[in-house]
Model the fold of this input.
Amino acid sequence: MVIDSHHHYWHYDPVEYDWIDDSMKVIRKDFLPEDLSGTIHEAGIEGVVSVQARQSLVETEWLIGMANQNQFMKGVVGWIPLIDLNIESYLERFSSDKKLKGVRHVIQGEPDPDFIIRPDFNRGISLLNKYSFVYDILIVERQLPNTIRFVDNHPNQVFVLDHIAKPLIGQNQISPWREHIKELARRENVNCKISGMVTEADFNKWTAEQLQPYFEVILEAFGPDRLLFGSDWPVCLVATNYKNWADLVKKNILSCSKEEQGKIMGDNAIRIYRL
Done:
């Protein structure tokens, strides 16, 4: 089965989604399951993992509810308050929702540069494995050194790095991202989504050639057993359409065997998220 391991839904609100600036006007509208189902079909995608876009329990419950009503939604990565003293009560509550496969916190947006290594946050992370939840890491490239320290505190936790840690593609800058990614990838409990790359480049001027070095780094660092295809729809629409992105990923993994391509395009997501 071909799986898109990363996309979002929302009812657009200019306050809640204030990060959608004037350069991203095309996504200032609602995006819901009925909008995605035909899009993935055209691209040959059979199932999706739906990821939180707001840090809200209401959003997590909303995603789970839609997943229970839409067969192509195979799993959800939601948000729960990981720094809450009563975090385990939330984990116990949501462990009965079989569609919830993982959790995520928007680390990239935290004003505290050391948030990811804070004791209260790490206490919450330390409980995820008990309930078989994956943790999605959402950071930007400058946060990689602390992220390596963070991962080392949780050797038994399954991690998935979103958007290849958002390197400075628009500036054609590959170091020190490349060196940090290779170091992070030495931790075998860390996986990586091939997603979010076009929106780290110039929305209107990016090229496939510009992205190729970044593809090469992650293919070498993580290998075909720990990479997952993700669209980052609808965010990707500010720079490309869904099928173009899927086709570009497929083109950049042609050096892999058919079996390895199958892992990247779905089998790994099924295994890692227990879809």
Summary: The radius of gyration is 17 Å. The chain has a mean pLDDT of 97.
